[in-house]
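User: two proteins, same treatment. go.

Assistant:
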Amino acid sequence: MTSTSESRRRLVEALAATIFEHAEELTELDRAIGDGDHGLNMKRGFEHVLALVDDVAAKAPPDALKVIGTTLMMKVGGASGPLYGTLFMTLGKSWPANVDATGFADALGAAIASIKRLGKSDFGQKTMLDVLVPVHDELARGGSGAELGGRVARRATSAAQATIPLQAIRGRASFLGARSIGHMDPGARSSSLMIVALCRELFPDMEDEAWQTSES
C-alpha cells in the first residue's frame, strides 16, 4: 500500500466528510444515553483537522497521525477528545515498518491498549472499544485489497450495531444503568463510520454495501 501526500489528503478529507455528514446522527445517539454533544464535538474537532490538511498531507504517516491526534485531543470536548487523540497519536507512534494487515493490527493493538488504560475500560462495556477490538481481530486475520477492506468495513458496522443490546459499564451512559440498553453507543458509531470511510478510500473497488445503517 503506497502513501503519498495526495492520498493522505484524501484520507483526511474522507474522515472529516463522514463526521460532518453524520454529526446530527451522532448527536442524537448521544442525547439518548450521554451529554448530547458527541456529534458537535467530533465535527468541531475535524473542522480543525481539515484546516491543517496541507500540513498533515505533507508529513510522513507517523507524524501526520500525531498531528491529527494532537488536534483532536485539544479541540474535541468531553471524553472523546482524549480517547480519539490517544488513538491517532498511538497509531502514529506504533506505525508499522510493514504496511500490511498484520502491521496495522499491531499498531491498532497498541492504540487499543492505550485507550483501555486511559478510559479504564474494556471490550463489552459499550464504548468505542467494542468496534476497535473486533476490527483489530479482523486485521489480524490478514488479507489485502478489496477483500480485506470489505471484511473490515462489515466488521466495524456490525460491531457498532452490536452495542445496542449492551448495558453501558463505562462513560456517561453507565449512569443510566439498564436504561442504556437499546441504544447504539455514539463512540462506537463514530469509530465505525471513520473505519468504513478509510476502507472506502483505501479500497475504492471493494463491494459497496449498506455500511451506514443507523440505529433503528
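Protein 2:
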Amino acid sequence: MPIYRSKAPLRLGLAGGGSDVAPYSDQFGGAILNATLSLFAHASIEPTQDGKISFMLPDRNITREYDSTTILPIDSEYGLHAGIYNRLVKDYIHEPLSFRLTTYVDAPPGSGLGTSSTLVVAIIGAFAEWLKIPLGDYDLAHLAYEIERLDLGMAGGKQDQYSATFGGVNFMEFFKDDKVIVNPLRINKTYLNELSHNLLLYYTATSRESATIIASQQKNVLNGNTRSIEAMHQMKNQAVMMKEALLKGQLDKIGEILNYGWHFKKQMADEITNPLIEDIYTSAMAKGATGGKISGAGGGGFMAFYCPGNTRHAVAEALIQFGGQVQRYEFTSAGLWTWTI
C-alpha cells in the first residue's frame, strides 16, 4: 500500500505580529512580515482495510483508534486531526475512510512558531495528496484557517496557515472578510544569509496558552482600548519598516526595528510578557543584541534576538543561565510539500 506524506515549515514572525488577528484586521487591516524555517510539521497517511481510523502522535506519545465513520468526536488531544477529517469528509469525500495518520512537529506545542496551524496545513496536504483534492495555495491556506478558527473555535490570527502553505519570506496583508494577499519578497541571498547568521533563536523552555493572550488582545480592540489599538497600528507600521530594511539590505536597522516592535507589542495585552521574558531580553541586550522579540502571541516559547557582528556567541552564552536553549535553523524558500511512496 502506498504512503502519502507531507511536510510544512514553521514560521518566525519578524514584524507586525498581532495585526492579523480579528477584529483588528477586519477594522483596520493588518500587515505581517514572516519567514519560514527549517523546522517542520510532518504528516503521513497509510490507507487501511480494517475499517478503523487511527491517529498516532509519536512526539507526544499519543495514539487513538476509532471505528471508521463520517464524523469523529472532537476532544482536546485529537481536535485538530478529527476536525480536519470531519471537514474534508463533509466538503469533498462524502464517505467514511479507513487509514492511519501519523504526525509530528519539530518544535513543541505553545512555542510561538505556528505549530498548530502548520500541522493543520500538513495534514490537509497529505489528504489532498491521497485523495487528489484540487486545492490551490490560497484555497488550502484558507481552508486550514476555517477549520482551526471557525470549525474548532481556536483563537488566533491568519498568518500561520499562509506562511506554512506558501513558504519563504513574505509580506502579508490582511483585510476584512478574511481576505489575505501574500507578497513574496525577493531578498538578496547575501542579506538573507547575514540575517540568519545574526538572528539568534532561543527557546525559553516554557510554553503558553496562546488563546488566552489572543482573547485579551481581541477584548482590548472590542472595548476600544486606545493604548492597545495604537500599539497594533505601530506593529503594522513595523512590518513596512522591516520589509524596506530587508529589501534594501539595511541590516544595521533590523535590531532597532525589532526593539521598536517589542516596545509596542507589550502594550497589546498584559500577558505578552513576564519577569522571566524581561530578564532574558535585558540580558541579551546587555551582551550586544540590538533588538529582539517574543515569537507568536507571547508569554513564552521562542524568542529571537538580532546580534550584529559576532555578538551572537556572547548573547547565547548569557542566555544559558535561564535554562533554555539556542535553536539552530535556516530560512527556507519552499512551503508545503506533498509526495507519495
